[in-house]
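Blackboard transcription, Thursday session:
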Amino acid sequence: MQIEELSGTELAGKIVLEGQVHGESGRGRVCEKPSMGTKEKNRKNGAEGKKQAVARPEAEQVKEEGMGDEIVREFLLESNENLDRLDRELVSLEKDPRNRETLSSIFRTIHTIKGTCGFLAFGKLESVAHAGESLLSLLRDGAIELTPERTTALLSLVDAVRQMLGSIERSGNEGGRNDGELIETLKRLQKDSEVKEVNEVKEKKSPVRVAVSKTENGEDAEHAEKREEAAGPPKQLGKILVEMGTVTPEDVAYAVQKQLEGDKRSIGEILVERGMLKSQDLMAAVQVQLAARSAVSESSIRVDVVLLDRLMNLVGELVLARNQILLHTQGVQDAGLAASGQRLNLITSELQEGVMKTRMQPIGNIWSKFPRTVRDVAMSCGKSVRIEMEGKETELDKTIIEAIKDPLTHLVRNSVDHGIETPEKRVQAGKSEEGLLLLRAYHEGGQVNIEIRDDGAGLNTEKIKKKAVQRRLITTEQAERMSEDEACNLIFLAGFSTAEAVTNVSGRGVGMDVVKTNIEKIGGTVQVQTRAGSGTTVKMKIPLTVAIIPALLVTSGGERFAIPQVNLLELVRIKEQNVEKRLERVQGAPVYRLRGQLLPLVNLNDELRLEGGKTKEDGGVNIIVLQADARHFGLVVDQVNDTEEIVVKPLNKQLKSIRSFAGATILGDGRVALILDVRGLAESAGILDVRHEEEAEHELKSEMTDMGSPEKQSLLVFENRAGSRMAIELSMVARLEEFPRESVEKTGELEVVQYRGKIMPLIRVEGMLETENAGTKNAAGERPVQVVVYTDGELTVGLVVEQILDIVEEKVVLQQPAKRPGVRGTMVIQKKVTDLLDVMELIRMNRGKESVVGEG
Amino acid sequence: MSERRQFCTFWMGQRLYGVPVEEVQEVMRGQAMTRVPLAGSAVRGLINLRGKIVTAIDLRKGLGLGEERIKGPLMNVVVSNKAYTVSFLVDAIGDVLEVSEEAFEDVPETLQGEARKLVAGVYKLPNGLLHVLDAEKCVQTGDSGRKEAAE
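(Written on the board underneath:)
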């Protein structure tokens, strides 16, 4: 993972910060203006360039220099936002064609665009928008109904407007488009035979709608727009009045009717005149309406992403400076300084959180494009698909949102194109005609999970295997041994596509592997599950942010290096006396036998040609087991230091060419440390190489087995003093430590040790559980205490165990429910009965002990 | 009168070098440096410049200077423009000198090798010569690490 200069690629566009009024939590929420494609953004980036472009002489429409630029830019920004909303609203309108509110909103948007175009003298744009507006006004009045044909025409109108806006942004004019045909279509659709008697429409209607539907077909747009202004956004006066309880809906209906009959006054005036409303009440309602308007506009501002990035960087620096200060205050006996340090600490953390928040955007921002995408794809392949979304508000860092946009779009298209069957086939299979595409997003364990589920036919694993064999991606034997899940994940291999016919949507042989690469680039994972006949689910796990990552710090050759935790599998330490025995060589190449498998070893000192400055504490060997693509390998380092959250910084251009480094970071002491690029390191060490392709595939296969069953968890298996096997989830384990027996101290009944400047309580597993009493194996009195350090937020405890046995990947299937407190249940691991512990429960039990001590 | 230019000058060995003053961001005393393994020999390491990670480049070898150096801590001359920020490691900082364009001369043809690329020319001072460095080229010497590492 080569870390690119972040600021270069991701900044662009603007961010709208919304204040209290919108954010449910009261905190600022960021919604990027989703309309601009990357290209457009890059263009935006050079604000200077754009200014010039707009002001070019041939842009005759810009009449006032300077002033005109500003207006045009505002117009572009605003219109782009509006167009995106139009896409969404048109699609939702198709489902609910009589939703007057949506129709009105669409009408308003088009009208605004048309109006501004007229003002800025974009004639073509205006005429296109006008044609659309006329059609919409008929639709809104119920004179004609929304047919798929009309929706398509309106959507292509949106596309045409978007293209012209793009052209205006690029060159200052509308471009050489000829929209005569589109305008013709829009006009034809106003008049065709489908015009129906509105009264035929049988539906429970509100009085307002009845009133509207009585209007003449030919009502012209100008009139309509006036009415629109009267009932303008954000909330209609009539509605407010009804809500306030001062008038009845019938009164409002009456007033609207009056207006339609040609009364030019506002609803409020009509009502007051008729004596239905007191003028004080009217004033109050108008106040409410105005307040709502200004609240929307004043509580959000646009902020340049460049500025946010700078803020983010500065906060990163502040965090580092804070770390340094805290480091210094530790040695100083000054209460005042300590207190100030503490305050600084808190404020910095809060500030960091706040700035991170400004970069967070709800995933709904990118999802909002999908209804249109789904509709277009479904139309083009004659399918009917409904899209549902759960967890739209789930927030992700802007950089990540940008990075997953394309992969997600691809997956959605894929699902509609290949996943969901045609209506006929669906009916044959006993399903409803309409297919369902479900998008889900939710937070889990510091990551965001995104699922794309369809209820289509599922993947044909036999076909996939055959294809993979045909394409020589796997061998026939491998195919035979493969499980369903493994076979599914073959679609992520490069050069794989099962679509029999290449459609214009997908099936070009690129795609899924690109999706996978892109997701992995930002530290995420993707996997697919399928059930024949009932659908396919693609699951992604995405980190919340890329700027700050957890990393393991190691020392080698006198320098410190950071290894991203994503690549880290486990740490192995070979004691000095065992080195000879445990480190073996294959023709001179060092290997280590890790649970029966030979793990190739790479010495970091050799790999980076680091000489001198040996920092080894003793003759032991530290092996960091890493994963690069599908390969596992052991990296031998002098010293393993600690884990730390690091801020990733890009390397200078001239150092980027060194593949072994992914970037650099500044550590708590202000020194720079290089971040290792595990993949690059593996490549330069020859771990990832064509010669190993076969093995890699084998690895990939076993890898996929693991991936295929998501319920699998890593468990740490250990033995307690009574000799019974126990396990806890590895995700809860921070570290494994050894303490000399004499360092165990007592406070009351509790056993504690001093650990990293803190007092860590120890929990003796066998003491807490009512197993055979401790001391059965007391012979091991002098041996150091083996402690599993468990961390959950601020809480750190040590579980005292007799011996660490292994780390296993197992599906957690509890054979027996818990019988004792502190045990979640019993299961079979490696053919032996093992108790799965409930550490939280154990901690609570231990606390109980503490309070007893307190009372006694 | 001919045009006058200002140079930030510094010493490496017994020679006086300079870069245009507008390219110099700041001058600092020696900083803690982190070595970059596999990088070219000109890259001495990375320094933390108020949160920005900057590559420190030692031009000594490229300029054909020996190990001989002026006593005292190494100084960093941080050169910055839109494309890059790097730090040149030098022995000592000189004055900011204002020189007349008339005093400029190209490097003599007899100067060959890498130094020819790095030195843009010299200004004749009353008491010696001021070697003007081509910052752009100097930054690129850091790149040579690519070739060395590839081998």
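Lecturer's comment: The longest helix of chain A spans residues 67-95.
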